[in-house]
Amino acid sequence: MEFSKEFIDRLSTAKSVVFFTGAGISAESGISTFRGKDGIWNKLRPEELANFNAFMKNPNMVWEWYQYRRKIINESLPNPGHYAIAQFEKYVEKVAVVTQNVDNLHGRAGSKTIYELHGNIERNFCIKCNTFYNSADYHFADEAPKCDKCGGLVRPDVVWFGEMLPQEVFAEAEKTAEWSDICFVVGTSAVVYPAAYIPINARKNGSYIVEINIESTELTSLADYSIFGKSGEILPLILDEVKENYRTRINPA
Ligand code: BV8
Ligand code: ZN
């Protein structure tokens, strides 16, 4: 694959790179996306299950959906896209991942600086006393569990529609993206806010926006450069460019 000269030039001088990721980066790990042409939740809108009212109305149904997703995530492995991002840290001064995903695959691939905007499916907490529970503790729970301490309902530690994002995490992520030289937008439909403000504000602040997606999105018209293809195939090729540049810098002869 041939990348544009402008992109390669930007890549060779970038000191700070941010990866803003969505469900598409985990698609090649076997985890379904929410939207887009292959999204299996096209019939079941995530907005209808991922919200507090749905949980209060039918905790077992929402819990069952999360247990189903956890099972798939537990059986999945990071793919070459996650690993390529983690490898960037060896060659670029400052690298951060800002993810909307709750699947922890960036962490499992070895990325160190990760801002999880929408929480992490591996954790739960009690809606009454806020006690945290590890999802592994509820491996076999078919129904929404009750808190050991107070009997309150235990829910996944993810951000549902209508809920605030973790404010400190969001602020740090926004700042990092705004100061980045390149902001890669990978595998996201970029329709969920306030997360989608991250690349928008990064661009306003002068970051070079590179989108990687199998199809065009809400963000395509704003991106400086769009690469259409699977992230698990494109990201390793970009990493190769970075490695090559690093090698010639260290050893110019
Ligand atoms: C809030 C966690 C306020 C749980 C999720 C402004 C304008 C309009 C609406 C709003 C607005 N501000 C707020 C809203 C409302 C709402 C919102 O954005 N609604 C949208 C849908 C209209 N936002 C909220 O409610 C947020 N909270 O605003 O709070 C507030 C203020 C004060 C006080 C109290 C409250 C909270 C939103 C959080 C929702 N949580 N998930 C869980 O996972 O169960 S959302 C869900 O969508 C996902 O989990 C994910 O995190 C998020 C984004 O989806 P994507 O990751 O982009 O995935 P998607 O499937 O859409 O796209 C996949 C892409 O990958 C596609 O483009 C596809 O082409 C591509 N792809 C596929 N395969 C590949 C690929 N690309 C590359 N390679 C491949 N192989
Ligand atoms: Zn409790």
Q: Can you tell me about this structure?
A:
The chain is of the alpha/beta class. Helices cover 35% and strands 18% of the residues. It has 9 helices and 9 strands. Helix 5 packs parallel to helix 9. It is elongated and about 65 Å long. The mean pLDDT is 94.
Keywords:
253 residues; alpha/beta; six-stranded parallel sheet; three-stranded antiparallel sheet; binds ligand BV8; binds zinc ion
Task: Give the helix/strand layout.
Elements (H helix, E strand, L loop, with lengths): L4 H9 L2 E6 L24 H4 L2 H6 L1 H16 L5 H9 L5 E6 L5 H5 L4 E3 L2 E8 L5 E3 L19 E5 L8 H12 L3 E5 L10 H8 L3 E6 L11 E4 L2 H20 L3
Parallel strand pairs: 1-2, 1-7, 2-3, 7-8, 8-9
Antiparallel strand pairs: 4-5, 4-6
Helix pairs in contact: 5-9, 7-8
List the uncertain runs. Answer: none
Biggest sheet details? 6 strands, parallel
Strand order of the largest sheet: 3-2-1-7-8-9
Q: In percent, how helical is the residue content? A: 25-40%
Average pLDDT level:
94
Number of helices: 9
Q: Tally the beta strands.
A: 9
> Assembly state here?
single chain
* Gross geometry: elongated
